[in-house]
Amino acid sequence: MISKIPLRLLRTLKPMNVQRVLAPFCTQLEKINKSGQKLVKIVEKELKFEKSNYVEDESVTDFIDKAGFKLVDEENSHEVTLEKKVGDIRVVVQFQSRQPNPDEEGEEEQEQEKQNQEQEGEESQTSNDYADFTVYLQKANGQILCYECTTSQGDVNVNLVSLIKDLESHMKIPRFERGLQDYSGPDFITLDERLQQAMVDYLKGFGINNQLGAFIEHYSLDKEQRLYIKWLDSLQTFLKN
User: Where are the compositionally biased (Acidic residues) regions (predicted)?
Assistant: First the structure.
């Protein structure tokens, strides 16, 4: 039931000023339109710049063919997979697109840091520019050995070696979450040096070397640039339609 407004209250009500109510709304729309037009121009400029500066690297195909890998690179995914067979062992390399790390230090600071590290006998990497990747070695009987690796300036380092039960499910786990529930082995650097070297040599036998590391660093950046161009293109479509 809709109740009636008492007559004494009705007399006190003032007529609504429609123009005054619509004025702020119209002003808001004008601001949105202006900011939208500005955004479109910036996106168009950025997209044009990225497309004009992107050059497809033809050496990618040559490297893949020589290394014997099959490249799996889905257009809308940040995951990249390399796969091949060595004897009866299935070799799977997994990595992701990555953004370039900005170099925040000046040349003098870099040189000084490098000299300090050489004096102290440190062997740690001097660059913040690196890419993570995972290598799976799966035997015909289903057993899987997993190497968690990092590559920087083509120098491949092993961080962790573990035995896993299911390849597909493990590949879906974010890298930083792997090994949180189940024991995945000790930090690689804590192992006996002879054991470390033997495990690295075993991995190299499957073609996981510095050349592959350099390829992963390059391709992960290339993948990120292609995804960024696609994102800009989709953003431009949204703003114009």
Answer: 102-111
